[in-house]
Structure formats: C-alpha cells, structure tokens
Design a protein that fits this description.
- By secondary structure, the protein is an alpha/beta fold.
- The chain has a single domain (9-175), classed as Rossmann fold (3-Layer(aba) Sandwich).
- It contains seven helices and five strands.
- Strand 1 (9-14), helix 1 (23-32) and strand 2 (36-41) form a beta-alpha-beta unit.
- The radius of gyration is 15 Å and the shape is globular.
- The structure holds flavin mononucleotide.
- Flavin mononucleotide binds at residues 15-18, 42, 44-45, 88-91, 102, 123-124, 154.
- Residues 12-133 form the Flavoprotein domain.
C-alpha cells in the first residue's frame, strides 16, 4: 500500500555537482515552510557529493538512489512537488530526452507526466551550458511546465568567492502560480 504523508511531501532530487554538499539547507528551509521532504540522489551524487547520513537524520527517511525490488513497499509517499537541486548538465539532458536510466531521472519523467509541480536549480558551468543540446533540453523542459531558475555556474566571481546558490529559490518557484 502507498503511504500517505500528513504534510505535503516534497521530493528533493540531488545530482552530482560540488554544490550538493549544502543540500541540507534546502531541506531545512522546506521543513520550515511546512513540507515533509525525502531525497532521491543520482548514483554519482551518492559517491561523496553530500552527507547522506546528515540528510537521513534531517528527513527521518533513507536517501533513495536505486529502484526498489518488485513487491517491496514504496519507500516514499507520492510527491506533491519536486525540487531538483543541484541539477546537473547530465541529468537535465537525460530528463529532456526521456532517458530514465537512474531512479532520479525516472522519477522526474514520471512526475512531469503526472503534472506534479517541479522546480529546477541548475548548477552548470558556462562552457557546458553553451552546448546546443543543453539549450534544447531547457526549452523542452520549460515546454513541459517545469520551472527553471536562473543559471548558476558554480564558478567563483571576480572577488574570488562563489556566489550563494540560493537554495530557497526552488521553494519560491513552486509557490508561483
Ligand atoms: C567535484 C565535481 C564537481 C562537479 N560539479 C558539477 C557541476 O557543478 N555541474 C555539472 O553539471 N556537473 C558537475 N560535475 C560532473 C558530474 O558529476 C557528472 O557529469 C556526472 O556524470 C553527473 O551525474 P548525475 O547527473 O547522474 O548526477 C562535477 C564532478 C565532480 C567530480
């Protein structure tokens, strides 16, 4: 049987970008705004990009990365909304192309098809963002109703500091009509 959450349930999809180390900030902000959160990470992101133990302690749920076995209960309730943060070049291109070879991309493809609101915080270097396939992917995802935040390159500014990622932008985008 599928579990129902008492609070609206937010899927946080985490990809393998360096900035992922700060994802607990998003989860804490979401909880403050009344969401219950569960994290789905890409397999590469599970390899040291963020503190999975800290995320599990904060959400009270396991971080998911692989498909469940047939017959196992669904580990998360169905999503009321999804934030993809950080979103990588790789995952965004695969999602737009419908290549569901990770639980994260499969979940995104399905959630979009169900009409679940989805916000995306890309973290993609300018050199990769210049690739025509990436531009086409963003156009396609926007056409599917996906809400995509302004570009963030992850690179240091002229002062040598990396600008703030602004994790709460994902929650703000979900609130837009
Ligand atoms: C330390 C490190 C930082 C990375 N940061 C980024 C990044 O900010 N954005 C990005 O698109 N890829 C980044 N990558 C490359 C991705 O990890 C790589 O493309 C990977 O295949 C993405 O897998 P995923 O989309 O399934 O998470 C980084 C790789 C490493 C090793």
């Amino acid at each position: 049987m599928t579990e129902r959450a008492e609070k609206p349930f937010l899927y946080v999809v985490v990809c393998a970008a360096g900035i992922a180390a700060g994802v607990t900030e998003l989860i804490t902000a979401a909880q403050r705004r009344g969401w219950e959160a569960g994290v789905i990470a890409t397999p590469v992101a599970m390899g040291g990009f963020f503190d999975t133990g800290a995320v599990e302690a904060r959400t009270g749920r396991p971080v998911r990365s692989a498909w469940r076995s047939p017959g196992d209960p669904r580990p998360f309730p169905p999503p009321d909304a999804v934030v993809v943060a950080p979103a990588t070049f790789n995952t965004l291109n695969k999602w737009a192309a419908g290549l569901a070879d990770t639980l994260a991309v499969g979940t995104l493809c399905e959630a979009a098809g169900l009409g679940v609101p989805i916000a995306v915080l890309p973290c993609v270097a300018d050199a990769l963002a210049a690739h025509p396939a990436y531009r086409d992917s963003l156009t396609r995802l926007r056409g599917m109703g996906v809400r995509i935040a302004d570009p963030y390159t992850g690179e240091p500014g002229p002062d040598g500091h990396r600008p703030r990622f602004g994790w709460e932008r994902g929650l703000d985008l979900l609130q837009r009509p």
